[in-house]
Amino acid sequence: TPIVGWLRELGGPVDGFHQAMLLQAPADATFEGLQAAVQALLDHHDMLRARLVRGEGVWSLEVPAPGAVRASDVLRVAAGEDVAGEARAARERLAPDAGVMVQVVWFEQARRLLVMAHHLVVDGVSWRVLLPDLAQAYAGGELEPVGTSFRRWAEQLTALDRSAELPLWTQQLTGDDPRLGVRALDPAVDTADTVRHLSLTLPSQVTGALLTEVAAKYRATVNDVLLTGFALAVSRWREGAGTEVLVDLEGHGREAVVEGADVSRTVGWFTSMFPVRLDAGTGSDLGRSLKAVKEQLHALPDNGIGYGLLRHTGTHPEAAAALAALPAPQIGFNYLGRF
């Protein structure tokens, strides 16, 4: 898929690339009950049993039959209550080439359950399927069927011809993009070890109107609103370097482009990533800025899924080479939604 191709091209180690959830279990939860529930999850959702196959110039995922991955091999009882330490150890146990895509840790005293999965097999939407299914399986209920398998979706997605979109994506990547720092990013230096984090919590008086009233008034999405504010903030911070802002935008990727597909309950890494050149103007008229950004985003076919097909799947080699020769965005943006 496009996003797996993107990961392959990044280079470097990927074994610990994961997502995780820390859950509060019922007061009467037992290890045996959890093990049965985890086994049901592994058997029901194919991608949790996947194994990474690194071919020449392409990565693929092979999925064995249900029962091939045992809950007893991925579920363990924590030695103590050090969640951070156990999470690091669980990450070290992930081994996608060996088919170890999932780790589950039971903190018996705190009644908490750490569920970790390699990012190759889950995304943000997948957790909205997995967590209710885990609770349903623990209660002894039958899990709802999965619609379209990830394999079928991937095969049909990569068969799509999006070559006509090459001029559009070339235009997005062509133009000024002033350097953010004192030097360009260096993949050899700017690794996960050097990442720094900044987390901010905003009051509901600010976020409430932003996420509801503004979007409704302009018939826009929350993404439209947030990206307008973001584009204005970056252009002001650059102080006179122009109003255009080039961003790598992430989406859920579950677009209705595969005929007859139903991936609403399919677990897997569907994420799309594509460049978009935003121009919100000076911000002197915020309504006009929002309308401009909204139009720029909505002009991208199928929420940008065609870019990854051209750039990262190997199905359009000439287009991939042309896009790879253009400067990549320095900024990434991902709105995960409201949970």
Low-confidence stretches: none
The 3D shape can be described as globular
CATH topology of the largest domain: Chloramphenicol Acetyltransferase
**What is the CATH C level class of the largest domain, in words?**
Alpha Beta
Strand content: 15-25%
Kindly provide the radius of gyration, computed on alpha-carbon positions and rounded to a whole number of angstroms: 22 Å
Assembly state: single chain
The arrangement of helices and strands along the chain is HEHEEHEHEEHHHHHEEHHHE
Q: Could you name the key traits of this structure?
A:
339 residues, alpha/beta, Chloramphenicol Acetyltransferase, 2 domains, four-stranded mixed sheet, three-stranded mixed sheet, 12 helices, 9 strands, 15% strand, globular
Molecular structure report:
- 38% of the residues lie in helices and 15% in strands.
- With 339 residues, the chain is of the alpha/beta class.
- It folds into 2 domains: 2-144, Chloramphenicol Acetyltransferase (2-Layer Sandwich); 162-333, Chloramphenicol Acetyltransferase (2-Layer Sandwich), CATH 3.30.559.30.
- A 4-stranded mixed β-sheet has the order 1-6-5-4, with helices on both faces. Strands 8-7-9 form a 3-stranded mixed β-sheet.
- Strand 4 (75-77), helix 4 and strand 5 form a beta-alpha-beta unit.
- Helix 8 crosses helix 9 and helix 9 crosses helix 10.
- The mean pLDDT is 94.
